[in-house]
């Protein structure tokens, strides 16, 4: 497969959010002339509000509202000066109260996002390293990435994976001054928490270990003076911990707060801190509301409020325990997550609950993996027990209906979240369909396969026989692929669908930028299988093209598509794959909507190229029908070099030639880090040499006929298409002989000589192929992963190397 374009993360998020917006569950507007916190008006209907992050309901407290209004009357709507010059008259009182709450010096920031941007670059030195929990909030990750410009290494570990954390600590303990681990206190989607006790034990073992905790979702509803989950666990704030809390969310006002017990570090952050200097300060109304809230936090009333919320949380947990709803993490936080698995199931469930009168949040990519879509429910003091019970009853009623309506089942949801589930269900496909899953092309009817799947790429019946022989029985695991052939038939035995899939080992950075792969390859010198995963893929890494036949006009065509996606999910589980990749789709494929709804992300691939040769009887007539620009390209950049070389087509190479083919192909492959794949088995070229459908177009200098400059390795499919699958080249002489351009030209010349009507030119170097008359087609792949870790890890590494 050719080099994949680096897909734009923001474009992917845009597509996901647009899909959710169109489903009516995202980017909504609240209505009404007032807001109580208990209910929220959406499109003219009052819904019980289970989506707030104001868990104690202080944003509706009369004392906070009165303080805010009085401050506006006295000091105006804002105090338009940088805090570096002068703070508004209320700031000093607020800082005094918050400092008393924490028992340590604090820094007030405009919000947590700007706070992280101000604090992290100030706290982390150039000779430090950052390790991110892969579920730490985006605002922390974004601020940490700013340090790439100072060459501070940024690593990432799987969520709460302490063994992986310790491995990273060992990697840097002798080379870095401080090792910063950055995590959330309470995670905003699942409501789970950082393992504080175990982390502190790790810091005793490794004194370089420092912590940066974002505890904004742990604030107010727990801990002494409402200072949150982290400080509740720590009791005292050690000097190796920076703790971020919030004055918004549960606190009821606006802004964020950093607590620091290290005097030197505090002074360093407070003195400058980027946005702390250059951003506007909190508005007087926000400061006054925060003072009123801080006074509540410093009184015994905070514990009464916490107790009232705790009763509601416990009641919700008790109600849920009597159901079989997939609660993803059982904990004591006010954040709950009910898994739905597929996005379309999440949309359906949210809409059903809103129609029942309950507003909940949708959890969706990138906050969670696409196939881990679900409903985030938050409990606040505004919620009464009768509506809490009503919500649980509504979920229990609608959840199975949602699953049925969106073509899934509870087993698939539980498996997506790695939860235990007792029932085992069969595929829910139409009883009118026959699904065959075969393990070798030898079990497939040759005539039928070639009728529906032949005529493109190296995957007609004979091509797959060759691939099975080549990629099985090898000593290295990356060279052994498992093949599966899926044929779905109607009651009359007529195929509606055909495809083949492979299970093989891919490098996780296969689609990453070349410089990232180059850095990872350094680590693979010690561990060859570092960052690699088993992938279930439509087609294989040796083939390109439309890897499936689907009769979409058939009355059972829709049922076939639904059945296939459920089958793929089961195959992924059974075969132990970490990712499913469906590839080589056209831009406006009719599969797009259903793939998105089933948890696949779209990634743009390089443009595919093909050459139509019908009616062309000579290379001369082919060149003459090119555009004037392309004819100039031929005359200037190819024709002069033809005189320097000779080209011959070899169907049976000798031992020396085979070794040269291997070497030259290796030269191309090792340079193609933009598509970083494992090597092919050593026997590949011997198998090509023994197969009558393969031949080699070989380019040599006229003065040295035994020196191979380059070779194109070509397959003839069904006498209908010529497939130049791979190329090998001597890079030191590439420009001297215009080797690649010559091989493209000679490939067209050979296909014309064979009277083949088409060339499948693949995805490499579409710019060069276009100049020789190739048609270019946009292609996309759809990826479904177990989690976001690899995507986020690659994102963290971008720009570091």
Automatic annotation (TrEMBL):
Membrane-traversing stretches: none
The keyword Cell membrane is annotated on this UniProt entry: no
Aminotransferase class I/classII large domain sequence ranges: 51-386
Pfam families named in the record: Aminotran_1_2 (PF00155)
Matches recorded under SUPFAM superfamilies: Acyl-CoA N-acyltransferases (Nat), PLP-dependent transferases
Keywords: Aminotransferase, Transferase
Gene3D superfamilies: 3.40.630.30, Aspartate Aminotransferase, domain 1, Type I PLP-dependent aspartate aminotransferase-like (Major domain)
Listed GO MF terms: transaminase activity
Cofactor: pyridoxal 5'-phosphate
Protein name: Aminotransferase class I/II-fold pyridoxal phosphate-dependent enzyme
Originating organism: Flagellimonas iocasae
């Amino acid at each position: 497969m050719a080099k994949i374009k680096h897909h734009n993360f923001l474009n992917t998020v845009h597509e996901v959010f647009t899909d959710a917006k169109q489903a009516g569950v995202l980017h909504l507007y609240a209505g009404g002339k007032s807001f109580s916190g208990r209910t929220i008006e959406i499109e003219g209907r009052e819904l019980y509000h289970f989506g707030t992050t104001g868990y104690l309901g202080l944003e509706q407290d009369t004392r906070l509202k009165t303080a805010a209004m009085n401050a506006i009357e006295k000091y105006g709507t804002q105090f338009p000066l940088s805090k570096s010059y002068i703070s508004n008259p209320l700031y000093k009182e607020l800082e005094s109260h918050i400092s008393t709450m924490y028992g340590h010096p604090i820094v007030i920031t405009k919000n947590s996002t700007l706070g992280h941007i101000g604090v992290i670059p100030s706290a982390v030195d150039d000779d430090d390293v950052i390790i991110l929990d892969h579920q730490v909030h985006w605002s922390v990750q974004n601020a940490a990435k700013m340090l790439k410009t100072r060459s501070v290494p940024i690593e990432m570990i799987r969520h709460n994976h302490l063994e992986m954390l310790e491995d990273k600590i060992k990697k840097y303990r002798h080379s870095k001054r401080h090792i910063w681990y950055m995590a959330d206190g309470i995670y905003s989607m699942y409501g789970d928490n950082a393992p504080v006790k175990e982390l502190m034990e790790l810091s005793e073992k490794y004194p370089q270990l420092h912590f940066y905790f974002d505890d904004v979702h742990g604030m107010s509803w727990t801990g002494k003076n409402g200072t949150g989950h982290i400080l509740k666990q720590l009791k005292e704030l050690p000097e190796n911990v920076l703790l971020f809390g919030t004055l918004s969310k549960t606190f009821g006002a606006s802004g964020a707060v950093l607590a620091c017990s290290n005097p030197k570090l505090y002074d360093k952050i407070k003195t400058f801190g980027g946005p702390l200097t250059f951003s506007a300060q909190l508005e007087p109304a926000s400061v006054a509301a925060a003072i009123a809230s801080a006074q509540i936090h410093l009184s015994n009333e905070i514990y009464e409020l916490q107790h009232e919320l705790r009763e509601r949380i416990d009641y919700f947990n008790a109600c849920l325990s009597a159901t079989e709803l997939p609660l993803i993490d059982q904990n004591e936080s006010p954040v709950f997550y009910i898994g739905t698995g597929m996005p379309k199931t999440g949309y359906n469930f949210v809409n059903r609950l809103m129609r029942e009168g309950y507003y909940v949040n949708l959890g969706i990519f990138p906050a969670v993996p696409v196939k881990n879509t679900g409903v985030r429910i938050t409990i606040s003091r505004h919620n009464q027990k009768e509506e809490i019970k009503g919500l649980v009853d509504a979920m229990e009623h609608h959840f199975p209906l949602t699953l049925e309506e969106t073509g899934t089942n509870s087993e698939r949801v539980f498996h997506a979240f790695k939860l235990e589930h007792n029932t085992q269900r069969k595929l829910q496909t139409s009883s009118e369909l026959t699904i065959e899953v075969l393990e070798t092309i030898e079990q497939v009817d040759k005539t039928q396969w070639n009728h529906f799947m032949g005529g493109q790429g190296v995957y007609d019946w004979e091509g797959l026989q060759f691939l099975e022989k080549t990629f099985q029985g090898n000593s290295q695991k990356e060279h052994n692929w498992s093949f599966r052939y899926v044929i779905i038939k109607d009651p009359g035995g007529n195929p509606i669908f055909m495809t083949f899939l492979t299970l093989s080992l891919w490098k996780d950075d296969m689609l990453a930028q070349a410089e990232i792969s180059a850095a990872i390859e350094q680590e693979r010198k010690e561990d060859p299988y570092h960052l690699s995963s088993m992938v279930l893929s439509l087609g294989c890494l040796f083939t390109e093209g439309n890897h499936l036949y689907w009769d979409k006009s058939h009355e059972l065509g829709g049922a076939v598509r639904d059945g296939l996606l459920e089958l793929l999910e089961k195959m992924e589980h059974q075969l132990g794959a970490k990712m499913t990749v469906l590839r080589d789709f056209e831009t406006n494929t009719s599969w797009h909507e259903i793939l998105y709804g089933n948890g696949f992300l779209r990634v743009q691939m390089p443009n595919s190229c093909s050459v139509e040769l019908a009616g062309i009887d000579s290379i001369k007539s082919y060149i003459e029908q090119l555009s004037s620009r392309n004819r100039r390209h031929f005359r200037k950049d190819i024709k002069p070099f033809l005189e320097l070389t000779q080209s011959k087509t070899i169907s049976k190479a000798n031992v020396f030639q085979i070794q040269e083919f291997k070497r030259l192909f290796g030269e191309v492959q090792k340079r193609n880090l933009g598509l970083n794949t494992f090597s092919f088995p050593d026997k590949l070229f011997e198998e090509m040499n023994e197969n009558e459908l393969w031949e080699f177009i070989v380019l040599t200098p006229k003065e040295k006929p035994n020196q191979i400059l380059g070779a194109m390795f070509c397959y003839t499919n069904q006498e209908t298409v010529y497939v130049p699958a791979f190329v090998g080249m001597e890079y030191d002489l590439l420009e001297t002989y215009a080797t690649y351009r010559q091989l493209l030209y000679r490939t067209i010349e050979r296909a014309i000589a064979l009277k083949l009507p088409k060339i499948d030119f693949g995805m490499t170097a579409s710019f060069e192929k276009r100049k020789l008359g190739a048609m270019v087609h946009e292609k996309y792949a759809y990826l479904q992963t177990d989690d976001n870790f690899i995507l986020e890890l690659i994102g963290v590494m971008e720009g570091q190397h």
